[in-house]
Amino acid sequence: MNRLYHYPISPFSRKVRLSLAEKKIEVELVEERYWEQDADFLLRNPAGKVPVLRMGSQTLSDSTAICEYLEDAYPTPALLPRGAEDRYEVRRLVAWFDDKFHQEVTSKLLGERMFRKVMGTGYPDSANVKAGAKAIKYHLDYMARLLDQRRWLAGNEMSLADFAAAAHLSCLDYISDVDWNRSEVVKDWYAKIKSRPAFRSLLADQVPGFPQPAHYADLDF
Amino acid sequence: MNRLYHYPISPFSRKVRLSLAEKKIEVELVEERYWEQDADFLLRNPAGKVPVLRMGSQTLSDSTAICEYLEDAYPTPALLPRGAEDRYEVRRLVAWFDDKFHQEVTSKLLGERMFRKVMGTGYPDSANVKAGAKAIKYHLDYMARLLDQRRWLAGNEMSLADFAAAAHLSCLDYISDVDWNRSEVVKDWYAKIKSRPAFRSLLADQVPGFPQPAHYADLDF
């Protein structure tokens, strides 16, 4: 059986979960409190992060390398388009969300408001929370500009870029940090992706100490 | 004419320069003091980072997305192998150097000892420098373990993984922060990559205020 070592509210784990589910690759989910640096886990993944995917005799780490591997090894359905320029645009946006959005928004809101409590590293830094709350507006507006011209974020087909974005936003939505009223096109995009069967397992996630808000799993939010 | 907006001692810029040179794609190099957030530069790249590659009407950002694009659009010579598992190993190691090595080593040594001065952000934090000097040993040993079993870092062919690693190490070598005596296989690997024609432009880099050390451009270091 394939196994994914993950953490429910990790956007990087969620991006891989969405790819696996979309490609109908079954995995057993194993929750990993990766920051506790369990020796067995470090042996599987010297980088010490989630997600880690075990498939047969292989142990795969790094969410982007895993998603590229899944594209190479399980090409249907494709989450990367065919042309070099279209593929570039998907990869640019995956990096946009996993690097820039993560640094400016996810780490500042989710990192301060949830992970500090879960990891036991003190109280949220309010300057960070404020900076994250400000930055998410800019990012939602950027998404709106893209979605004004395209059906999905990177083009007219759904791709890894949508999964990367939805992975971050869904984590933030769990702590009610996304203002869905800011942009109708962004809300419509999220409603489309949220209603996919691949999304179901994310909507069932529960983090102890953080009850799921009512709108989180509601397809008509 | 193609243009690469770069900064000489940026490992991400260097990785792209190596890929371009290996594929014999000519570019004009334009030095970009990206931290000054020049308005024209931000227009080209809203992420505000180097490198940015202009090719024809296209403007490409994010070093990993650029390298993948170059593989897709200019496949010969290949810097990614063909099999899904071999490609995964290259991508895992690119991420290893660009994420983990960068965070634990490059940002702590180069960031503190050179970028602070260049950017005018104060004196080096000695705790960071100490942590970086300690972490690089672990990383050199990890490379030695890989190179004990393989001709190049990710397998028996040279790949983007070697360029990512050499991009970081060459920047650190400019400030004499790499102990090449720690591992013979790592030194041999670096000598091989350093002697490639693609590496020449990196060896000619000069940063004002930081004279090149004698061994830096010496192929027999």
UniProtKB/TrEMBL annotation, chains A, B:
Name the UniProt key words of this record, in alphabetical order.
Transferase
Signal peptide annotation: none
Alphabetized PROSITE patterns for the sequence: GST_CTER, GST_NTER
User: Where does the GST C-terminal domain lie?
Assistant: 83-215
Q: Which domain of life is it from?
A: Bacteria
Output the Pfam families linked to this UniProt entry.
GST_C_3, GST_N_3
Name of this chain's protein:
Glutathione S-transferase
Which source organism does the UniProt entry give? Answer: Cognatiyoonia sediminum
